Amino acid sequence: MAALFALGVMSVAWMSLIALLVSAQKLLPARGLAVIATAALLLALAIGVFLAPHEVPGLAVPPHAVHAMKAMA
Question: 22-33, pLDDT tens digit by residue?
Answer without folding.
Answer: 888 888 888 888
